[in-house]
Each structure stands twice: as C-alpha cells, then as structure tokens.
Request: fold
Amino acid sequence: MSDNGKHTNVIVRIQRFNPDNDQKPRMQDFQIELKPGTTILDALQEIKTHQDGSVTYRKSCRHAICGSCAMNVNGKNELVCKTPLRERLDKNGVCTVRPLPYLPIIKDLVVDRTAFWEQYLRVKPWLAPPPTVQTDREYRVSQEEVAAIRNAETCIMCGACYSACQVIALNKKYIGPHALLKAFLRVLDPRDAIPGERLADLDGSDGVYRCHTIFNCIDACPKGLNPTEAIETLRKLAQRRLKVEEERLERQKTITEPIA
Amino acid sequence: MRIFQLQRFSAIALLVFLTIHMIVVHYPPFHIDFAQILIRLENPVWKAIDIAFLGAVLIHALTGAYMVVTDVERVYSYRKPLAWAAIVIGILAFAYGSATIWAFRMPA
Reply:
C-alpha cells in the first residue's frame, strides 16, 4: 500500500485452463504494479511479457472497436482494453478475470465463438438490395430512417451480450441478441429488399419470441446499445410482416435519385 | 408467434379477471362468506366468468411453462410432443374445472 491508501501492487486473478493438462479451470494470482492509466488489458500484457508467457487471451486494436478482448471481469462482461484496472479492484486489491461465460474454453481466456458466428450468419447480416439496381442513381435515406437504426450500427460484435444472455446459457439454438440486433439493422434499413423474409426467419421458436427480456445484454454491452429494444421492435414487426413488406416495396419506389 | 400471442392475450384477460376476482371475492363492501359464494354461483353469468377465468389461467400457465421448459437445449428437440402434452393437459384440466363449476348447485 502507498501512503494515500491506494494499492500500488495489486493482484490480477486469472482463470487458467489448458486442455492438454487441466481437467477443469483453476484460478491463478499474478501480482503487478499498478501504474496510472493501466487497463486490464495492459495488466494481462504485463503478466504475459514478464511473468508467464503461456497466459492466453485475445486482443487486437486496444481502442474498444475490434471486439476481440471481451472477457468477464469480476462477474461482468467487459472489453478489457477500455476498462481501467483501478476501477475493478475489490477491497483487497484483487481483480478477477475469466473468459466469457457459457462458451467453450479453448485456452485460458480464449473462448470458442463458433456458435456466436453461426447464429450471426443465420440472420443474413448483409444488405439485400432490390433485384434491379440502377447504376446511374444513388440511394437516398432520410435522417429519420438513419436515426432509427443508429442503435444497431455501432455494434462491434464483441460477444459480451451473447455470453451474458441467460437463454444462450441454456440453449445455443437461440439466435441471440447480437444477431437479432443485426437483423433489426437490416429489417429497418429502407435499402433492404427482403424484410419480410427476414422477419419470417426470426419468427420461429428460436427467434425473437425466445427472448425473456432479462436485460443482461443491455447491461453487458460495452457500447451502450439496447438489443432488448431491438428484439421487442422485431417482435412487433414480425406480427405485421406482410404490411412491412408492402411498405418497403412502396418505399423502394422512391429511394433512388439521380447521383448528385 | 402463436404461443407468444396466446400468452399476451391471456395475460390481458387475466388482468381483467383477476381484478374482478379480487373486487368480488376478497374486497367486497361487506363480509363475504360461503353462503354468499353459493348465491353468486347460482347465477350462470358468474359461472361463465369463472370458466373463462379458468381458461385464461390454463392458457397463460401452460404457454409460459412450455416456453421456459423449451429454453433448455436438451428439451428443445421435444417441442412438438411437449406442445401436444400441454394441449392435452389444458383440455383435460379445462373440461374437469368447467364441469365442476357448471355442475355447482345450491345444496337443498
């Protein structure tokens, strides 16, 4: 402890698991010096560089935009690159880092995201333009239409919401908040030509009605997005799917204008 | 979607029926006793209300239980047999409960 009562040497407790040697995960403590501005990712990097090179985790951009470093810190899913270590220390100066829950562990803090990406691809996350695209014209989307989908646009696919969802914990066949948020983005996008088909796909027993509005996804999202609200909107739209299709066809008649 | 809608509509019906139930049975302006219940159930309109109440309770409970149980991946593949089991249980419980309410007569 320093004179001002703040911890200078702190413990980072990491869940370790090596499938080649371990039967089940175990916790390992590492002591590091807490410097100003140290994030949890910095701490992991410090441990890997100077104490144990076998500590395994994912990272990439270090700017909270790639979504690689989502982990469970003191029981909450977070991006460790943007989380200051000082803010996550308990009264004993310990910060506990685990891999994202409910996903198979590959090694230490690295999880297998296969189910996550499978569900993502299932909602056809790409834009489906109208069959006849006019190359001499451009799409014009109104400010209101952009504002409606802004919530979903900033998702970085980190998996924090997916791994915090209690329904996913029980059933990997559920599409999940990340993919439903992306589906919301496409369904509401006036350039998309297949909202009816998308809503029909989401209407099944493992689609939007499987969500129990537990709100864990909102709590976990490092970007402050609201997947639950998107799922609720999709539920409402799914119940008037044919009307949505008609409205989209009408909208697409006027969406293209000459290139400015 | 149908299960979701059934549960929502039955929830709205339950809100109405429970309000009536609480006002009539638990918070009457006077003391309620078995004799008054007997008088009330002599009226076929009250019998119809109670039977509708029973229907709403069964639909809401069984659809809710079905949704929660099928959340579990191991059970998920048995969705159809579970749905049929819930329908059969619902019909049997509704028939038994309705017959009991409808057959109710003031003791001689």
